[in-house]
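Objective 1.3, modelling of assemblies. Example input:
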Amino acid sequence: MTHAVMSCLHANLAALEAVLADIDQLGITTITCLGDLVGYGPQPNEVVELVRERAIPSCQGCWDEDIIEGLNSCECSYPSQLAERRGHLAHQWTADQLSEANKVFLASLPMTLRRDRLLFVHGSPNSQHEYLLPDMDAFAALERVETAGADTLFCGHTHRPYVRDLRDGSIRVRIQSSTDHTSPAERQMPLPVRRIINAGSVGEPRHGNTNATYVIHDEETGSVEIREVPYDLERTCQAIVEAGLPPVFAWRLSQGFEYAERADDASHVCER
Amino acid sequence: MARWALVSGLQGELEVYEAIQRDLRQVGRVDTLFVLGNLIGPDRDANALLDRLQSPRRGELQPQCIYGWWEDQLLAERAFRGDRRADALRLSQGEAAVDALLQAVDPGHLQWLAALQFGFIELDCALLHGSSADVGDSLNTGSSPLLLLDRLTRMDVNRLFTARSGEQFSVDLTGGGIDSHVRDLEGERQLQQVVPQRKVIGIGSGLHYTLYDPGSDRIEFRTLDQQPGSRGRGFA
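Predicted structure (tokens):
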């Protein structure tokens, strides 16, 4: 079965409509969303309502959680103080705009979705706030997939799409126990082959290009296509400015990368 | 270089702590005493031990303490952990155990317990009760090497000392590697990574404790007899 996975919609209605049109035009009917329906963008209610109307299974992203739970994330959500200040502004605006029904919907979203050996999360199986960057420590990346009991992990949160295959791994250990006074035991553990697929971002692309991104995965062949979809960027940027959100949100959408911000500690886990 | 003594699981037993202090005087060349949590437990009044840890006697090593699973449960139940309560304890051992734990510690000790840290980083070593993932994370010789490596990587240390399992052990990561292939919108690349030479050490519990020489990386597991004044046995 071929299915589409998208993430990080960030209240960008024009981008979401363009991505859904692309998926529809390909004849794909199974869609999964990895969260962050709101935040930064100017149409939180419209985006949530479109996801609800299309009955797209979604997990809860860090923005969805924080809008419901209040601003209580640790600094791993915001890689810089500048980002944090802007994030707080967007948080307050979004919380004020969202209808109660849409807040209830966001609160109802699960942390993870699972289909057989496919696992869908926002950040990582540990936390909506953890970044699984494409070049992070390979053993740590493998541990996230393996401990969650998945073969393929779909994630978002980084806003940069990628496919990472982890293979040909092993770890040798020497074990000494105080209850066993014989020579230390030597053991070699072959590591399983696992895959991480990051869906990028529909509403806040940061891969150096303004196009919305999502992925198409074929469960039978294992093939993955990273799709780039142009959308009416001007419409969203204008709505951001008219809504009174920080103009830098419009500026960075028009650049396709994050300004002065990048999570540089992928192994950091939110300690909340 | 002087050694560290690593102790855990006293669970209110002042006699055990005194036995360890006596043993430390006998073995010598120990300059730091770390107590890696579980100072308290539900089975006995812990107040005398807590008094002693905060006010050591002359000639005793000053203990450097962190909180463990039992302290975490107590602090949660006493509303020091936000909305969280001692649900893990309640689920595993029932309401009676929660009540017993509350009875074991005078409220006057709560502020001191609440000020204890999650762990210490000394040189290239993490000294924790459970692991870098959670205070309740129980690592032992049966733990997946991938999981052990992850717990080391999270804190970027070469040695992780853990107490939660109560076992004394050493697991050395001695070799191996992994390949990965990344494809993104910029292209494709191959990455190779080798297993770093790292180690996870279980320090034991109660009368079973551990000596560590950070200069030579030598570990000695000590086991004391129950009788006061008796000598300990150790092997490295």
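Chain B has one domain: 3-174+200-235.
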